[in-house]
UniProtKB/TrEMBL annotation:
Protein family per UniProt: Belongs to the peroxiredoxin family. Prx6 subfamily.
Protein name: Peroxiredoxin
GO molecular function: thioredoxin-dependent peroxiredoxin activity
Thioredoxin domain span: 4-164
Superkingdom, natural source: Eukaryota
PANTHER family named in the record: MCG48959-RELATED, PEROXIREDOXIN-6
Length: 252
């Protein structure tokens, strides 16, 4: 189905949420946002997913990432369902907004329609997730079937990868996780790499003798640790009445 995909700017929709009416571009501000849809309220897989997202919310906020859920149920349903989610996930609070899309027009504009899952009203939202960058463009999209819940460790991993690549001329290899070596971008020459990565890098000796596979581990580490520590201090023991309050607190 044609629609919103990687590289596209998200539409500046005005939406009703459990935290009030918001406009997407204002909500996203100049930071990272995870926009995720779920097929329906009071369903088993979705309940576990939103509970997990609540558990991980501090991890995302510490990295400057906002959360925004979406389904085709109304606000009353969302608010009642949140009680179940929090009961299932002791200690976790659903402090992120959830969009109500009873007309199912928003899921069409955000390319979050499941072509196979339907009810009497029509197609349900897919189990989709868009990671939106500070420039309001989609950097990554996941699309899962209704039967498969998302892995929040993987979502956190790709956030770390995307943020690292946005700050430095690097990419993350297969099965990479935070703390592992990264590869230097292929458009960086060896001379440039020596200037950029003062701690050095290792070039893999390949049969082709092409020096394109270069690993480095230590680069900008103190800057990243300082950033995460600063974000942790700013969000520690704070309660936000609205996503806008959170977004403004995250601005420099």
């Amino acid at each position: 189905m044609p629609g919103l995909t990687i590289g596209d700017t998200i539409p500046d929709l005005e939406v009703e949420t459990t935290h009030g009416k918001i406009k997407l571009h204002q909500f996203c501000a100049d930071t990272w946002t995870i926009l995720f849809s779920h097929p329906g309220d009071f369903t088993p897989v979705c309940t576990t997913e939103l509970g997990k997202m609540a558990q991980y919310s501090k991890e995302f906020y510490q990295r400057g990432v906002l959360l925004l859920g979406l389904s085709c149920d109304d606000l009353k349903s969302h608010n009642e369902w949140i009680k179940d989610i929090e009961a299932y996930t002791p200690g976790a609070k659903v402090n992120y907004p959830i969009i109500a899309d009873s007309s199912r027009e928003i899921i069409k504009q955000l390319n979050m329609v499941d072509p196979d899952e339907k009810d009497s009203t029509g197609n349900l939202p897919s189990r989709a997730l868009h990671i939106v960058g500070p420039d309001k463009k989609i950097k990554l999209s996941f699309l899962y079937p209704a039967t498969t819940g998302r892995n929040m460790d993987e979502v956190l991993r790709v956030i770390e990868s995307l943020q690292k690549a946005s700050k430095f001329k690097v990419a993350t290899p297969a099965n990479w996780k935070q703390g592992d070596p990264v590869v230097i971008a292929p458009d960086v020459t060896n001379e440039q790499a020596k200037e950029m990565f003062h701690q050095g890098f290792d070039t893999v000796d390949l049969p082709s003798k092409k020096e394109y596979l270069r690993f480095t581990k230590r680069f900008g580490v103190h800057r990243e640790v300082h950033y995460i520590h600063t974000m942790a201090c700013r969000f520690e023991n704070k309660h936000y009445e609205s996503p806008t309050d959170l977004a403004y607190d995250m601005l420099p």
